[in-house]
Amino acid sequence: MNNQILITLKTTEEETFAAVLGIGEDREAEIDSLMDKCHGETTTYPDAIAAAANHLHDANELAYVCFHLGAFAESQRSKHELLNKLLD
Q1: What pLDDT is stored for residue 38 in this prediction?
Q2: Residue ranges of the chain with pLDDT lower than 70?
Q3: How far is residue 8's CA from residue 20's CA, in Å, rounded to a whole number?
């Protein structure tokens, strides 16, 4: 069994990350709202991803959610680290 996924993105300046993944503008807006809802209703990022996954259509939509929630989590972690350095 092959347990690896290879994702290759080829973008132009006009394309968004969602468009490259085959996600249209309307669906992107739906997924963004879903991410906000799931993030607000859960206490961890993995739980938010799991909650959102129940409403996604394919692996590309899941990749989109994982990327965005992961980037948000990292930005929050960086803010906490900076704040801790300032307070020390």
Answers
A1: 93
A2: 1, 8-12, 73-83
A3: 10
